[in-house]
Design a protein that fits this description.
The complex is a heterodimer of chains A (about 425) and B (about 350).
Chain A (H helix, E strand, L loop, with lengths): L22 H9 L4 H25 L9 H10 L12 H12 L8 H18 L9 H16 L1 E2 L1 H23 L2 H30 L3 E2 L9 H27 L4 H15 L3 H15 L8 H27 L2 H9 L4 H31 L11 H9 L9 H28 L6
Antiparallel strand pairs in A: 1-2
Helix pairs in contact in A: 4-9, 4-15, 5-6, 6-7, 7-8, 9-10, 9-12, 9-14, 9-15, 10-12, 11-12, 12-14, 13-14, 14-16
Chain B lengths: L1 H10 L1 H8 L3 H8 L2 E6 L7 E2 L5 E2 L1 H14 L5 E6 L4 H6 L5 E7 L2 H5 L3 E3 L4 E3 L1 E6 L13 E6 L3 H12 L4 E6 L2 H9 L5 E5 H9 L7 E3 L7 E8 L3 H20 L6 H4 L6 H7 L5 H5 L5 H9 L2 H8 L29
Parallel strand pairs in B: 1-4, 1-5, 9-10, 9-11
Antiparallel strand pairs in B: 2-3, 5-13, 6-13, 7-13, 8-11, 8-12
The chains are: A mainly alpha (about 425), B alpha/beta (about 350).
């Protein structure tokens, strides 16, 4: 009896996977139709999506780009066979007003200035956001940018921002001299006082003196001319840029051992967080007006900027405090054991980790602040939402709602989605593998 | 730089307080611009066009005052104000005058310390209903749902009207006129009530305006007019008589078309005094002789302004009604220029 068993001596060539488990069909089988329940869900979802799209797509694709009034749009829609009512969007309003929605009342011959300001903003942000991809020297431009930005937007003499920057220089010089001669605390206080004296008392005189000797400047634009997305972005950027450092200081102050500093910070944070932003805006727009002597011209946008910044920094402080609280105590003790002083340990050990932990919270706060800028329409500033009301007050466009809100929502989405994607990129980049 | 301006302003605040009270007219002349408060946007009354130019019925009053005082109808800084910020803006001196379809009431005049300089539009609260409802009088609205803007006098007027007629209603609170249009068209309420001018403007935007009727009842008095602060009577006089000049010009037949001709002198002494060829009225106001001529030439007389912005040939399509001259059975009655 011969026992012949089959022994394969060479490998079979690899076969392509069956069509039912590879490619598009395989993907669909695995993800959409992997069981009778999921199949049913998929079909129901498809029906819902198609139903929604069948209502929205014809509305969006309406041939009304050249319309000059709502009634003309309706005639065009009727001619194109769209049935009445919500038969189609009236895009003529966007064609006529998109520039206004972007720039507000900014003089049209000066549009290059906000555009330049926002392009330069990208340049200035590059060394901060993508530090590994651009030359490090660019950070000097980032340092100068806070003075270039308001100058480009508001215009006026070039000496103003230079004098403002000089305040920091003076403060730093005094700090170095005093901290070498006396102590670092005295240096800090002295530097702050010197800078404040310069800004409050001397810089105005210096600016007017320099202006009379060498008048260099660009045409000034009043705050009243600001509007539309330019206003939102300006408020958003200033609030975001100022609230992060303020928030760090407040968070550290709240954890400080110095009693007065601690309770000042706690009081500030809790007060601001306990009050709605809209209340602060009303304080900025009406209450300050009543308290200040008549004739005082305290710029409305500056008032709003300060209020929004304070509001954002209180939230930022709590987000960063969350990051600080998440650090193990060993990190603080490790820093101490290396002999680092308070600021060194914060700068080199604590903050880099705490900020990394807080990134999602920080970016959420940024996005929230940016969207909150639309609240300024309630105090009569013409941000995109305020402008949409003003546009509807034009007899040609009265009655248009969805098109304007849709356009505004789209632009806001672009900015907020961009920020959110960047935060995810940053988290991936800083991933140091603690899990 | 803004900061230094601000802090400088604060340090000399005490001095400025004294100086600012000196006179609004001097401030305006020194500034070279009139700061005029308007709405953030109301059809026919004030709205910016695509180039950012403000136009409208209230805006024309601002421009007339600017033309009278500064000689340039474009020397106006329009400050958009909301219903909540308008009075503080005026009281604090942020604006020199407010022309924002504001109803002249006792408490605003007396308690809030403002000076209404006249009435440029006599309005009143009305009702709009779909024709299909088959209602011909507001008294038949028993049990109706009513769309109404919250926090306005219209809310109080409505309650008064229904109570005094002993009928019931169900309010649907809404925030803005745009929202009201959507709610009303969607059938969320049977009736929309607001100022009659607003109803007309709203109805004009509907796809089929003929399907909706504005009921004959007007349930409130809403005299809308420009206002200034209490206590600066010289400035109040200028605003008051600039408005009166526009109204009188219509009465005397002075239009933007014939004003140059009439300004050479006419047989009518009233026109001569108005346009400055006789008498010293301008001097009494602290202005020059041709102040009223410039105010009228800016956008035409009252009738021309009305026809251009809210008249029957515009989308708003308002009839003159109460806003006709007294000679035509209306309420417009400018005191004599003498």
């Amino acid at each position: 009896m011969s026992d012949v068993s089959f022994v394969r001596t060479e490998m079979l060539p690899e076969k392509a996977p069956p069509v039912t488990s590879a490619g598009a069909i395989g993907w669909m089988r695995e993800n959409l139709f992997s069981g009778w329940f999921n199949t049913a869900l998929t079909l129901v979802s498809l029906v819902v999506i198609l139903y929604v799209l069948s209502a929205i797509v014809p509305w969006v694709l309406s041939p009304t780009w050249s319309g000059t009034s709502l009634n003309e749009c309706r005639e065009m829609l009727a001619a194109a066979g769209h049935n009445g009512g919500h038969g189609g969007a009236c895009w003529g309003v966007i064609r006529e007003r998109w520039i206004q929605l972007l720039f507000g009342f900014y003089p049209s011959e000066l549009y290059w200035r906000p555009i330049a300001a926002f392009i330069l903003l990208a340049v200035a942000l590059a060394p901060i956001l993508f530090s590994d991809k651009v030359p490090g020297k660019l950070i000097w431009f980032s340092a100068a940018y806070p003075f270039i930005f308001p100058w480009l937007l508001w215009g006026g003499t070039v000496w103003g921002p230079i004098a403002a920057a000089a305040g920091f220089g003076i403060g730093f010089v005094v700090y170095r001299i005093l901290s070498d001669a006396v102590s670092s605390l005295a240096g800090m206080i002295g530097g702050l006082v010197a800078a404040l004296i310069w800004w409050l008392a001397l810089s105005g005189l210096a600016v007017s003196a320099l202006e009379s000797i060498l008048p260099i400047g660009i045409e000034a634009v009043e705050s009243r001319k600001f509007g539309g997305f330019m206003l939102s972005i300006t408020i958003g950027i200033v609030a975001i840029a100022c609230s992060l450092p303020l928030g760090v200081v407040l968070a550290l102050g709240r954890q400080s051992d110095l009693l007065i500093v601690k309770y000042l910070c706690v009081g500030f944070i809790e007060f601001i967080r306990g009050v709605p932003l809209i209340t602060l805006l009303f304080v900025a727009s009406t209450l300050l007006n009543i308290f200040m002597p008549p004739g005082t011209n305290f710029d409305i946008i500056l008032r709003v900027l300060i209020m929004v910044t304070l509001f954002a920094s209180a939230y930022m402080a709590e987000v960063i405090r969350g990051g600080l609280a998440a650090l193990p105590k060993g990190q603080y003790e490790g820093a101490d054991s290396l002999g680092l002083d308070y600021w060194q340990s914060q700068r080199l050990i604590i903050m880099p980790q705490a900020l990394k932990i807080s990134i999602p919270g920080i970016v959420s706060t940024f996005i929230g602040v940016f969207k909150d800028t639309t609240l300024v329409s309630i105090i009569g500033l013409l941000d995109p939402l305020g402008l949409s009301n003003a546009i509807r007050a034009d007899a040609n466009w009265n009655g248009i709602v969805w098109e304007l809100y849709g356009f505004i929502a789209l632009l806001f989405f672009v900015f907020c989605f961009g920020m959110s994607r960047y935060s995810m990129y940053l988290e991936r980049k800083l991933q140091t593998g603690h899990r | 730089m803004k900061k230094s301006v601000f802090f400088g302003a604060l340090t000399v605040a005490g001095l400025a307080a004294g100086a600012a009270a000196a006179g609004t007219m001097d401030d305006v002349k020194a500034r070279g611009k009139l700061n005029c408060g308007v709405t953030t946007g109301l059809v026919g009354f004030a709205a910016p066009d695509a180039n950012g130019e403000w136009n409208g019925f209230d805006v024309a009053v601002c421009r007339a005052v600017a033309a009278a005082v500064l000689g340039d109808q474009n020397a106006v800084e329009f400050v958009p104000t909301t219903g909540k910020t308008r009075f503080t803006a005026l009281a604090s001196g942020e604006i020199d005058m407010l022309a924002r379809n504001t109803t002249w009431t006792f408490s605003r005049d007396v308690d809030l310390k403002f000076e209404f300089v006249g009435v440029n539009y006599y309005d009143g609260q009305g009702f709009m209903v779909p024709k299909s409802l088959g209602v011909s009088s507001a008294k038949e609205l028993d049990g109706a749902t009513v769309c109404i803007q919250t926090g306005t006098t219209t809310e109080l007027n409505l309650a008064d009207f229904f109570r005094s007629n002993n009928i019931s209603y169900e309010p649907v609170p809404i925030e803005t006129n745009a929202e009201a249009q959507q709610q009303y068209l969607a059938g969320a309420c049977d009736v929309y009530t607001t100022d009659a001018s607003g109803l007309a403007a709203t109805r004009a935007t509907f796809e089929t305006p003929g399907d909706h009727v504005i009921l004959p009842e007007i349930i409130s008095k809403e005299p809308l007019g420009p206002l200034v602060r209490h206590g600066d009577n010289e400035w109040g006089d200028i605003a008051r008589w600039s408005l009166n000049a526009l109204i009188a010009a219509e009465e005397y037949g002075v239009t933007s078309a014939n004003i140059e001709e009439l300004a050479k002198g006419t047989n009518n002494p009233e026109i001569n005094r108005l346009l400055g060829t006789e008498g010293t009225l301008g001097e009494m106001l602290g202005l020059d002789k041709e102040w009223a001529k410039r105010a009228i030439a800016a956008n035409g007389n009252y009738g021309e302004i009305f026809a251009k912005n809210i008249g029957e040939n515009t989308p708003v399509g308002l009839a003159r009604g109460l806003n006709a001259q007294w000679t035509n059975g209306g309420l417009l009655y400018a005191p004599p220029f003498r």
